[in-house]
Amino acid sequence: QFLMANKLDTAMWISRLFTVYCSALFVLPLLGLHEAASFYQRALLANALTSALRLHQRLPHFQLSRAFLAQALLEDSCHYLLYSLIFVNSYPVTMSIFPVLLFSLLHAATYTKKVLDARSSNSLPFLRNLLEKLNANQQNILKFIACNEIFLMPATVFMLF
User: Fold this and answer.
1) Does the keyword Cytoplasm apply (predicted)?
2) Are 116 and 128 in contact (CB under 8 A)?
3) Contact 53, 15 (CB under 8 A)
4) Is pLDDT of 8 > 80?
């Protein structure tokens, strides 16, 4: 009932879980290197879907105007949508997948905790413990993402040449 009552949040949760899955299969190429490249694209497309859903949630109805575009460009969701669309057609760059993977992991963990709370307060204690450890390391994960994005900029410029 909780999932059906929050359909848009549930769709974003599923797309974030899919992003984590595809990113993990790219970083750890268990199915081969050729398949890893397709998981890279799938992870970025799933992140683009999540960002588009989040942008749809935060912005009013679409209008073809300068004011709407300016408002859209102020949203982080728009930045990550553009980020995903830029890297989806490039050669797979491991540095570019880490922010996508880690943000999806953090947001999926937060919503998973809400789902578990809606189910019952003491369901799946192992998963709850894992989510608490992830939440305890959230600041370190965000610092890693920030450093990764800082180092990604010069690497991207270098790749252009």
Assistant:
1) no
2) yes
3) yes
4) yes
| 77, 51 contact by CB (below 8 A) | yes
Report yes or no: 40 and 97 within 8 Å, Cβ to Cβ: yes
Is residue 121 predicted with pLDDT exceeding 80? no
Q: What is the pLDDT of residues 82-94, one digit of tens each?
A: 989 989 988 888 8
Tokens representing residue 46 in the block: 């799933």
Residues 6+ apart with CB under 8 A from 123: 116
Residue 68: both structure tokens together: 């709407």
Other C-beta atoms closer than 10 Å to the C-beta of 19 total 28
- pLDDT > 90? residue 144: yes
Which pLDDT belongs to residue 124?
79
In the chain, domain spans: 1-160
Distance CA 80, CA 85 (A): 8
Question: What pTM was computed for the model?
Answer: 0.85
How far apart CA 78 and CA 27 sit, in angstroms, is 25
Cβ neighbours of residue 121 closer than 8 Å, sequence gap 6 or more: none
DSSP H helix total and E strand total for the chain: 8, 0
Q: What is the pLDDT of residue 120?
A: 78
**8 Å CB contact between 80 and 51:** yes
